Amino acid sequence: MTNNILLSSxxxxxxxxxxxxxxxKQNKYNKPxxxxxxxxxxxxxxxxxxxxxxxxxxxxxxxKWPVIYAFDPHxxxxxxxxxxxxxxxxxxxxxxxSNNSRNGLPTIDYTLKVLLDxxxxxxxxxxxxxxxxxxxxxxxxxxxxxxxxxxxKGILTCGAGLSGFNPQTAPAKFDIYAIAGREDFNYDExxxxxxxxxxTDWRFVSTAFDGSHxxxxxxxxxxxxxxxxxxxxxxxxxxxxxxxxxxxxxxxKQDYEQMVTNGKLTEAADVCKTGISFLNELTSTKKxxxxxxxxxxxxxxxxxxxxxxxxxTMEIQLKQGxxxxxxxxGLDWWKNELNGLTNRIDQNNDIASRQMYSRVKGFxxxxxxxxxxxxxSDNDEAQxxxxxxxxxxxxxxxxxxxxxxxxxxxxxxxxxxxVDTLKKAISLGFKDMSKLxxxxxxxxxxxxESRNK
Length: 453
Known about the structure:
The chain is an alpha/beta fold. The protein has helices spanning 3-16, 77-91, 108-122, 137-148, 187-191, 193-196, 218-234, 242-261, 265-279, 286-296, 299-328, 331-347, 351-377, 381-394, 399-411, 415-427, 433-439, 442-451, and strands spanning 38-42, 50-54, 65-71, 94-98, 125-135, 152-158, 175-181, 204-209.
């Protein structure tokens, strides 16, 4: 890939770097990319294991290519690859998305081994440029892969931090790029990473976007892959490219000016800190360091920090209170509190406060999932009814809620109602067929299959 193409892709990022949901728009600097097809490949050692493959245009087995192993929490390899292919096409990466890796998979070690063995056998992979990335549970799988295989150079974890990870005792060192939406219930894990890696020589980026618990846009994933590229230059794995370095610096400066103009001083400082992580060792970052120093003494910057600390304290208190109330409060209390929480999200004019309340709501969704699963496992009918009622009030379009409701109805031998509820779960996006088949009775599964012929 020529420098002109790479520079064009950088300039596209400059124009859209703050956008989290925008699609790629044509401008004077770039032409629409012509993507290759995403294809499915069954693993030769076990045909029940498969993955989606994206090979960049111009791929040839005559040279070695960097690779990203991509993981979706629901085993949707194609969805994972779709998010990476924009960066892959610009920078020339192979993307391999697992169709078997999913949340709660007991045989994840086996799945990862089969995937890596098959990939190395069939594609021209650069052993010095292997990366892993994923969303939510997929991000945690990327971390697992990096800790178990010393050949992984870096990871991109989206919507998940590194909870419980200790860099001091890690068996291998790798680069870490972590990103989460500011409404994501795992946001606190991601923003805790700088403290987690304080006084270490690990390379990391911790950043956020305006969004919830969701895959970041392909523009944001592109920036993570750009960071991998720049780190490869620092390590002298690939040649230093001054055009990319200069364009990246221009992008950082533009982002900084935009944040200052919008009165977001702490975000402006974060832009500079991220820019330093991208560019240190490649060019001077003294001007970025000076910008941070100038911001940190401003009254508005200090006020923003103080407000963030207050919201963080409030968030912790709300989460603790709601968690304790699962066993102490009745349904009327819960309905009232959840309606109040929804109103605070919908009617609050302060963005930071609204995002905080959204994180609390997302946290409650995870609590509902966990408590409902346990109540079903314990055959505690009263607790299951309570949890399902809270769950549906909180997240009326959550497919897991309706799946668990179908399981409960199945246990009550209400087969027809269970099937109707299961169809509702699937219409809302439930995809884990292996979990479905292992959780429901043969009678319910047969009726479900007969109604879907």
